[in-house]
Amino acid sequence: MNAVQPRVEDGTAALRLLGLHKVFGEYTAVDHADLTVAPGSFYGLVGPNGAGKTTALSMAVGLLRPDEGRSEVFGVDVWADPLAARKLMGVLPDGLALPERLTGRELLTYLGQLRGLDAKTVADRATELLDVMELSGDAERTLVVDYSTGMRKKIGLATALLHGPRLLVLDEPFEAVDPVSAATIKRILNRFVAGGGSVLLSSHVMALVEQLCDTVAVMAKGRVVAEGPLDQVRGAASLEDTFVELVGVKVGGGEGLSWLAS
Ligand SMILES: Nc1ncnc2c1ncn2[C@@H]1O[C@H](COP(=O)(O)OP(=O)(O)OP(=O)(O)O)[C@@H](O)[C@H]1O
């Protein structure tokens, strides 16, 4: 790749969120959140609906300006030096807005050139990524606007990987993805981490986080209520039981709804 990567000191955290805070109107979506993703770690962020995960990740990667706090990618301040930070990370945002009237290959070519990769590197990587994501063959004639939700996740992940980042920040990468594609994505992410990359993903699927991640954080009501190695956070219980206990959610038993039984 000919795009120059910023210099990174060994041992610097892959990602640090330092007191990130966001208020929408009267509502505090993220309340002074701190997180540290160690280099080489596979980090899972979990939390109930509305906990503030997407808001926190959007601020962390430079897509949403925080009211307070900052975020560093390998020591580079995301808001002070966005270009350097973006070279180091690949992002799959929630509800990714992609240029839609392009095929997957056209999209990768466009983004690759925008990121300063030479034409041959872009072409080689696009072919490899489309193959691995099972978006080659017939799918190559499909415009992104006609992609299914799962296909959009996969092309989104391909765009995140294209420039060879050292950190991936993925908001719900497995949502609406079929089991075969999920297995493919898991393999790619495991390979990325085995090669020295770092991943931060959010997910609602506890079993998946337990299977993939070595470190987890639990968010509830905008706060980080637990963070640490997976085994430490869940203790002797499952992550799901720990999660329910930590976030204090009431598990709905379907009381009421009597009309459903009629
Ligand atoms: N642009 C916005 N304007 C107003 N409120 C917002 C905005 N974005 C998020 N919120 C609110 O902030 C809270 C946190 O939302 P967020 O999407 O970050 O949660 P989440 O943990 O990602 O949820 P989910 O798991 O359902 O995706 C929610 O109550 C949401 O309604």
Automatic annotation (TrEMBL):
Keywords: Antibiotic resistance, ATP-binding, Nucleotide-binding, Transport. It is a peripheral membrane protein. It holds the Pfam family ABC_tran. It is found in: Cell membrane. The keyword ATP-binding applies. Residues 15-246 form the ABC transporter domain. One of its GO terms (molecular function) is ATP binding. This is ABC-2 type transport system ATP-binding protein.
